[in-house]
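Example (one chain per record):
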Amino acid sequence: MRLIIKLLLTALAVVILAKILPGVAVEGYLSAIIVAVVVALLRFIVKPILVILTLPITILTLGLFLLIINAFIILLADYFIDGFAVTNIWWALLFSLLLSLLQSILYSIFDKK
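Predicted structure:
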C-alpha cells in the first residue's frame, strides 16, 4: 500500500512539473503513473550499474556526476514512454532536481502516521 501511495505521489509530482516546465510534457494522468513506475524501475535497476561504471568520474566531480546520471534516467524514461517528452538534457536535469525536491516534500506531508 505504501508503494502505491509513493508511486501516485510521484505521478502527481510529474504532472505538476510538466505543467510548470516548458521543456517537459506529459499527455495525461495515466502517462504520469507510467512515468512514475518506469522511473522507479530505472532508478532501481539502471542507476546502480551506472554509478559503478562511472565511479571515477563521480569521485572526481565530488558526486555531481550523479545529477547527470539522474538526467540520463529521465531521458531513458522519455525514450521508453510515448506520452512523456523531455526536450533535452538540461530540461531533464532540471526536471530530475525538481522531481526529487517535490517528492521529498510530498512524501514528508503524507508520511505522517
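Caption: The longest strand covers residues 24-26.
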